[in-house]
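Section 4.2 – Deliverable D4.2 (structural model, holo form)

The reporting period included a commitment to supply a predicted holo structure for the target in complex with S-adenosyl-L-homocysteine. Inputs used:
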Amino acid sequence: MSFRATVLTLYPEMFPGPLAVSLAGRAKASGTWSLEAVQIRDFATDKHRSVDDTPAGGGAGMVMRADVLARAIDHAAPEGDPRPKLLMSPRGIPLTQARVRQLATGPGAVILCGRFEGVDQRLIEARALEEVSIGDYVLSGGEPAALVLLDAVVRLLPGVMGNESSGTEESFESGLLEHPHYTRPQNFEGGEIPEVLLSGNHRRIAEWRLAEAEKITRERRPDLWAAYQEAAKSK
Ligand code: SAH
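Output (structure tokens):
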């Protein structure tokens, strides 16, 4: 069964964009996943085809209308559609590799991309949208966020990555950031490849990589480090 993505957007021309090339593009061409970009404006009913209006209570900017968005969502995901409905949003739960992995084992996703100040709250509640953030910064629209999410999901779909194990040994999968990498040349501007990596001793190499991963996680991500130590305790 292939992973089916439907993206609701005011800019369908932004899709598949970068997802048409490389791993994701090949996987799409071979039917591992599919992508449909739906133009939200097609579900507007007034003669100006408006999708947004001024915010209740006043203030700057515009808000996407609940009625137009509801029609677009109901068209894209009729009753009984098993796919989760996501709203890209800086107020959402931050996206994690764990959530990405869950999505990749599911039937697909319906992804709503916000624009302007965001979307009417009643729509979020009425269609039980899961708000997902890709980080603590503000984009001008949900489209780049949807591309990020899909990129992360698609690379985990069966058969997409050549070397299956590289999917499970990466940053976040073990709760740690990844160890550093080296390749030829052996000497680069005076810098040598760490001796242990040339030793051929797989146990020592694994120990070195784990120690490096722990060091970099401790230095850069106290939050991940604390969670990792907590998990180690309960093992
Ligand atoms: N007024 C909003 C920001 C709107 S940005 C606020 O202060 O919270 C416009 C749209 O861009 C949002 O509706 C959302 O779809 C998208 N977007 C912006 N930043 C994002 C982020 N960090 N993660 C996911 N989507 C984001």
